Amino acid sequence: MVVYGILTLIIIGIYFGISVKVGKQYDVVVEDFKNDYPLMFMAPVSLFIIDNLKIMERLYSQIAKIQQKMISLYGNRTALQHTRMYVAQLISTSLVCLLGTFLFTLLAEGDVTIFIVGILFTVLIPYAMISKLSSQEKERKEKILTELPEVVNKIILLVNAGETVQQALIRCVTQTNDPNSPLIKELTETVNKMVSNEPFHQVLNDLSKKCGVQEISIFTTTVLLNYRKGGNDLILALRELSHELWEKRKAISKTKGEEASSKLVFPLILIFVAVMIIVGYPALTIL
């Protein structure tokens, strides 16, 4: 029991010691990300640990996987900063879980069960956070793939009406104002680059890399191969692509429907068990 109290004091002492040493060193970084991540009050301590223990370099292979997801979610420019802050959040969460484990074990007078459960949570919660990040990346890609057929259809109509691909993209963005749409956000950035007179092929290549979706790469490649020719060649290529995209959208909708049905199975089982208990309990009491 005394050991848990000492460990609790050690963690608290280390935290406050590092906080005093760090001072305002990471205030600018914390200010930039304060609305994006939880436990930001612990971020300076975690960032200090990352820098001094060189965690980003020593665990490069593991952190590279997180950075790849951050590139997909936030783009190349800020991916490294987001990765660093996300690792800081993993460290902060682990410290909180570890402190909670020692504290609750101390309050329970050294109960070993609580200690073991706390250690399990300390190990599993960071894995759960990384798994959630993978789910966010998957959801973003599915949203992009779901929205892409509509955008391609609009471009087909506008190009068929006589507009250029660039004008069609600009009109798609200006006529659609959905802040929750990841595809529209990326297209808005693409249009801004086009308006700034950046090369069209470079802008589309950046769009393809930023989205990280195979279908976007096919779309940009199709446009780049055919937009100079214009006319029927571009329209036919986009129509063929649109047909494939709608089929993939149907497949995604079907998969989501099946997942929703499977999620309902467990609640239905619980309801069935509850009904059986309600119906069967009077009969058992009579016997």
TrEMBL record:
Keywords: Cell membrane, Membrane, Transmembrane, Transmembrane helix. The keyword Cell membrane applies. The keyword Transmembrane applies. InterPro entries: T2SS_GspF_dom. GO terms for cellular component: plasma membrane. It holds the Pfam family T2SSF. It comes from the Bacteria. Residues 155-282 form the Type II secretion system protein GspF domain. It is found in: Cell membrane. It is a multi-pass membrane protein. The chain crosses the membrane at residues 6-23, 86-106, 112-130, 264-284. PANTHER family: INTEGRAL MEMBRANE PROTEIN-RELATED, PILUS ASSEMBLE PROTEIN. This is Tight adherence protein C. It comes from Oceanobacillus polygoni.
